[in-house]
Amino acid sequence: MSRFLQAVQSNISEKEKSELSVSELQKCGLTGIVLKPYQLDGVRWLSQCLKTLDGCILGDEMGLGKTCQTISLLVYARGHLRMKGPFLVLCPLTVIEHWEKELKSLCPSLRVVHYKGDKTKRAELQRNMEDQPFHILLTHYQICQNDASVLKRWNWDILVVDEAQRLKNENSKLHRILTEFSLGFRLLLTGTPIQNNLQEVYSLLTFIQPDIFPPDATTEFVNAYAAVQTQSSQAKELHRVLQPFLLRRVKAEVETELPKKVELVVYHGMSAVQKKYYKAILMKDLDVFRSDQGINNRLLNVLMQLRKCVNHPYLFNGVEPEPFEMGEHLVEASGKLSLLDSMLAHLLEEGHRVLLFSQMTRMLDVVQDYLEYRGYSYERLDGSVRGEERHLSVNKFNTEEVFIFLLSTKAGGVGLNLTVADTVIFLDSDFNPQNDLQAAARAHRIGQKRPVKVIRLLGRDTVEEMIFSRAVSKLRLTNTVIEEGQFSLLEKSKAASQLELSEILKFGVHKLLSSDESSVQRVDVLQVLGQSRDGKWLVDEEHVRPAEEEADEDEERQNHMYFFEGKDYSKIPSTEDEKRFELMLEEQSTPAEDAGKEGRSLRHKAGVLFSGHLASTSRVKRPLTESELEERRRKREETAAKKAKQQEEKKREREEQKYKKKMAWWASCGYTSLCLPSADSEGEDVDEEEEGDVSSVNSTDSDDTAIRYVLGDVTHPQAEREDVIIIQCVDDSGRWGRGGLFTALELRSDEAKKQYELAGDMEDLELGSVLLFSIDDKQSRLSGRDYLALIVAQRRDKTNQLSGIHLNALDEGLKKIYRAAKQKKASVHLPRIGHATKGFNWYGTERLIRKHLASRGVPTFIYYYKRTSSDSTTTAPSPTAAIPSTSRSAFAPPAPVSPSSSCSPGPPEEQAESPEGSRSSQQGGASGLPDFMRGVRVLFYHVGATERKKLARYLIAYDGDEEDLVSSQVTHIVAEVQSPAHIQELQDMCQQCPQAILVKKNWLKSCFANQRKVSTSKYIHHFK
């Protein structure tokens, strides 16, 4: 008997049987749920642990309701045990909104602090937490680590850590920080208590019960149970050690009503180009295979390159043929994508919805291109997607008829509920099988109404087979340690864990590389996937049986997603593989006579340098005559022209079909587009005025063709009797912005937001499109109508990243607006489009405005918004404005402008403070930026352009202003002094504006770092 079992028996008493009922929990404050019997048992077990232990692990399989059981325990602790709290709940960022929703629904009587946001918001929350009592603080790991010094101030009665596998390494930062907290009871939630080895189990045990499992006894624990898979006595003892601290239930045992899950492994061949590069990757670094060391960074790099090759050769730079256009080559180049293409067409036709997982975000990029090419609807979530956008993507997939959800296995495999999908496809496998299990549980969980089919794509005779085999062995360890039975698999598991990485790389080369030709074959998808009816899989009862029946089967057969139809994988390469590999080494060692001839090599990419195997075998050829060369050149040109014509025709056909489908959809919805037609669709010839554009742009403007610069509010244009067109640039997302010109337009008219979002819903926002409509619904002039023209000039991608303004889209939009203005005899009024946007070309924009509008006789006005001290409107930064995320814009009712100052032939830089749409005042609110720099007007002197731009951006964001000229408005001169001449110039400037304080740039940096206006005393320039 080990000392660990002795310690458990001597320190842990038997738990008293709990009679806790649902009605008691409801009296304590639990609402909005009726616990299932096994969930109530879980709460009873947790309540017993709370009374007798320092901590425990709820290790139920993913999808069995660990969250609701935990909240029930907190309600019980507060309502029945009268624990005052507070309780600390930590979870991943991806599931924090799910926790917020569940806490609000299940325990509305408990006061919950959602501890998140930027540094300023968290500081405000800290002050409120000190003044006002609370019961639960909910936050995510990263903020807990960043604000550990703050959170240590409280004595936490209960700590809950969701997805606690983050603590499997006792040397991790989160593990170290939490051990420094003042904690009462510690509850760990994880669907994967063990992922790789016994050391991870011990790390969790030492966190919840450090007195029994001291941190310095890890090696002793691992050695004590090293033979757990061969000696049943050790296995039984380990179960006795774990039993008081760990509760683990699986779906097959407790959730009998949950629809069945079927797992399939489907093999695919390799295209010729994949085989070519697979061999080249193996041969690129021969020394690693001749070394005595099996596992090292170089071999791991080779393994990663092979995995990329099996996925898709276009993951390497230089492989995709030019020109880079969508086409069937995208599918044909990869055996995996060819198989996926056949499957998705069948799944869409049968009414299934799909979760598509990959380890590589680059592979997701390729699949995304393919989905765009095929016209499939999709959402995407990976590590680059921000928290808010993750929530929006999940909601859209769950509420709309989106066909496919692209997910990275790690980012999309934790905490998401995607039960609207009934098909899960893994493009590649993880070495850690628990990551794949977590991912599959996104669909197969409570709430699922249809059978779920999990499909894994494996490249036949490639490293993917060996990776899959090793994952099986790891999962067997989990079953042995956590779940009883199945203790006779040591040798195979041990073989997998000790397998030399070099042998993994050699696996399958004999069959795979026996031929250079493609081994991709057509697949009978219906036969492979099975039948379905009305969007539901028809489960073959003969192959899906309860766990207790599976236990009676041969020990080799596993009842989990890694059981693959009885196939026995070898753990070492075959003799033929070894011979074939040695032959390849010998061939590679012989220097080629003409290496590099007539071959196309890959461009260099980090870690990838392919060898001469990509070159064609050198052989003597008869030189072609001049006429033969000319004939070959002619045939190649004809073939290329023919292919290009065919591709163009197919592209045109697809666009026509897409257009007809969209028109039918619009007709069924009663939607009429407000987009202006293009010049081509109107069939108008370019008039004579346009022919003179080049000369007019380079000539001096007359009064009739000059751009007029105006101080005022563009949403209330300064016009007389003529019609007016107001221009604003938007992106193609269909989500109306907040702040700046967006808020001003929304105050002016309800139509602006309404028509733009409607166009977004109807997919009527393409780059270069212009929506034109009247905005006289709230306010109007006595004569003349006001129109708003929204030019779609920016793109917003799936990760919510906003592009800059596309000048070609702006150019197309201005052409359309010219024709509308000419027809309506209207003047055009614009803010200073894109001002303060990083890298924006205002010079080019102004030339376009002049070219298409002013020089052709359209009265054109560009507005500079005059900020006043009485501005009071507060807005939040716009997510769709063409400005940096820290910039803002404030709007007040338009002040009258005198005729003498309202218009000028040039930009009134000395009068105007900021253009419309460039920034907004924030005086409060949860989402607003602080305004501690209000009233500060800075003139920069001799500060580098890049640093000046950065400082000015922050200054404006925090409600300050940048001045371009010396004037009485300047409050501070921020200067860098590098020569006596600079001192003289600064002294002259100080005489011109004696009210200004002369400071160093570090003053601004200190203000921004401290989030307040600091004293200038330490930063003033002193000149002798």
From TrEMBL:
Source organism (scientific name): Ictalurus punctatus
Annotated Helicase C-terminal domain residues: 339-493
Residue ranges with Basic and acidic residues bias: 630-656
InterPro entries: ALC1, BRCT_dom, BRCT_dom_sf, Helicase_ATP-bd, Helicase_C-like, LIG3_BRCT, Macro_dom, Macro_dom-like
Compositional bias annotation for Low complexity: 870-904
CDD domains in the cross-refs: Macro_Poa1p-like_SNF2, SF2_C_SNF
Pfam families given in the database record: Helicase_C, LIG3_BRCT, SNF2-rel_dom
Helicase ATP-binding domain span: 47-211
Localization, UniProt: Nucleus
Molecular-function GO terms, alphabetical: ATP binding; DNA helicase activity; hydrolase activity
UniProt name for this protein: Chromodomain-helicase-DNA-binding protein 1-like
Main location as per UniProt: nucleus
